[in-house]
Fold:
Amino acid sequence: MLTYEPDETVAHALDPRAKLAFQVAFAVAAISRPALAPLGVLSLLALGVLLSANLSPPRVLFGYRYPFGILCLSVLIAAVTIGPPWIDLADGVRTAHAAYGVGLVLLVSAAYVRSTPVRHSRAAIQSLVPGTPGRLLGIGVSLVFRFVPVLRRDIGTIRDAMAARLGTERSATERAVVLSSRGLTRAFVRADRLSVALQARCFAWNPTLPPLSFARADGLVLLLSVVLVTVPLW
Amino acid sequence: MSTDHEYDSVALVPESIVRPFARAALLAALTGAVAFVSIPIPFSPAPLTLQVLFVFLAGLYLGPVWGSVSLLLYLTAGGAGAPIFAGGHAGIGHLFGKTGGFLWSYPIAAFVIGALVHGRTGFGFGSIDPTADETPSGGFFDSLEVRDPATVGLGRLVVALSVGTLIVYAIGAGYAMWLLSLSPVEAVAQFVAPFVIGEVLKMAATIALVRDGRYELS
Structure:
């Protein structure tokens, strides 16, 4: 599983806003079904992005084996036709072309995930989305990061308790009901305790965040993003 | 000056926002925490995953406004790197990837389900920013009311969940069709047909959860 890892790579040093802009621009370029030459340039660029975050391509490909497997399945389903000639190569190639671009976008986002801690993402969100919605979004994102491991443990406990009582013999619907109702009850109890704690600690609209600053490298990344956005026009 | 804010007065967030906001954030985290859970279904090619079930629950228990906020938080946190998308994946790439349409449809589906179940009580009018309005009571978030889903009629629940499911699959399969140049039949074969049994079971599970008195969700 790919998650944030502390390091001192080029990608780690970049401003999170520049990295977000680059990813969106790259996605716009890659899913617009560019011709083969721009697609080759994008492939090299994606490789460079992975290396800049000290990620080896085989590691990312292995980590994303299921999404990539589903992309390959799409190509296969597109190529198969019902009735002769059974295989429509042109249809398959068209989907493979599109699926390749989608794969590149996944590679680039893996570099962001490895190189950006949550507090930087939060600061970037709050500086990009103005006002109260941005603040709520920023705080909410850090709460989600904080509580996913806690709630995953809750779900694990509930599943263990069900398994110990032969819950695995129950129907799928019954298991889903027990798991989701117990999970939701626990999550809402935690949420209500959290809201009391937040208010007790004067939860405010104007917290102090880590300062973000643009360096020359961020300017270059932004420039590259602007170029990438124009790829669909080529 | 960068230190100006230290001298500003602290603008406290009112309780009418803190409580539902904490619930929305935790429901988003829970939707991510169940990304690893899959329950095998007999005679179905795809196992039962619980994420869409929590989209239903967000609309039902948080209402149209906070339900969609919860799912927006889920998408933003996943995009920012929390391992909460299906299979424990993360990153903006998945929001643009083949299942990106499904992810984007979640807040819309939660909003529509909440609107259909809670009707006019789920909405309110007023200022969204409490710092702009010095009197926090009587604002937009104070006027939002979410009724207990157990009191909602069975017909209304079935219609709301069916419409929500249709939205998820129409946007999800439609986006994949456009993204990967698939024909409608191919898109349905890969992104809709394998999940039909699971979706029916999820709707049944949601209705059982909502209407069964054993499960107390105050």
Remarks:
- Chain B touches chain A through 84 residues (CB under 8 Å).
- Helices of chain B lie at 15-33, 51-80, 92-96, 100-118, 140-143, 154-179, 184-191, 196-211.
- Confidence is low (pLDDT under 50) at residues 125-129, 132-136 of chain B.
- The two ends of chain B are 47 Å apart (CA to CA).
